[in-house]
Amino acid sequence: MHLDTAVKPLAEVAIPDALLHTVSQRANDIDSGKYVTRDIFPALANAGLVDLGAPFNAANKLVHQAGVLHDLAERSLSVAFALWGHRMAIEYLTITGGAFAETLLPQLRAGTTPGVSAMAPGFKNFAGAGDLGLWLQYDDDGSLRLSGRLDWASNLYSDAMVVAPAYGPKNASGSRQKVIIAFPLNAPGITVGPQLDLLALQGTASTFVTIDDVVIDEQHILTDNFDAFIQRARPTLSTLQSSFCLGLATASYQQAHHNATGLNAVFSPQIQKLGEQLATAKQHLSDLAHRVATDNPPHPKQLLSLRVEAGRLAADLATLELKTAGGKGYVTTSDTNRRYREATFIPVQSPSEAQLQWELDRS
Question: Where are the extended beta strands (E) located within the chain?
């Protein structure tokens, strides 16, 4: 297979060369936490690259947003991952609509207010594998209050806006309805955990959050139609996650292909086989993305399977890149080492490979 087949862009998107150069130049500083990913959001927004296809594959542009994430992940998975979280917050708010959501969207679309996708417990709960971790209740004074914990989220900057699932207040029968809420991260009663020394993604402001009796206005409840919301949001989530996995896989494939000379030529058959799988996965993603929110939508199992495949390609190709790089691959400031560490994150990112495989086995 010719090299160009596997490294072909996922979609033709006009990312300014200067912006791509900036991401490449700052990748290692982001990896070490010297530079944070949110600083790139305004430039991406100015180029019209943060809300393509929102919501539901609007104007058939979801594949273009996937292409943006793919191309960024070739240079820095941290940037692509952070943008994915921000983009999903935009997706959630545009899905629900409403006056409160409309007041938030301009700042998110401009990249000035970071968006936090804290929906992992919601997707897990929908699959039948976990609790939401947050709950609402009425205080004695009639105010609505939120408590609980987010075990993991990213883009946790003080001025960020969070979208998350929660259990609503108890009704007359003592049961709770599941809802989707939005709230500012700087609200009194919210404590963001300490900065963690991460194996990768150091510049993505990722940690845990504790929430203690935070006052929530009724308008912060975006929707109480929990199941329908999850079903409508997940195709976009899965598509965009797969795209940045394939972007990382592409960068590792290209470098492994370059390294496969001399003794490393013994790895050429493996590299070629994975390259063929990579090219096929890209075409599959493009096809599925075009079908989101059409009369012929992709089946959830197709999206889950692609997400698993994309993650495994990233891991396998990052490992091959490391094998062919020699000792320099073990220098933590090298691009090869960074990509290898980035790839180790993908199997545990929610939905984790374990959850995805569990869902596929059940289906």
Answer: 115-117, 134-138, 144-153, 161-170, 176-184, 190-192, 207-215, 221-223
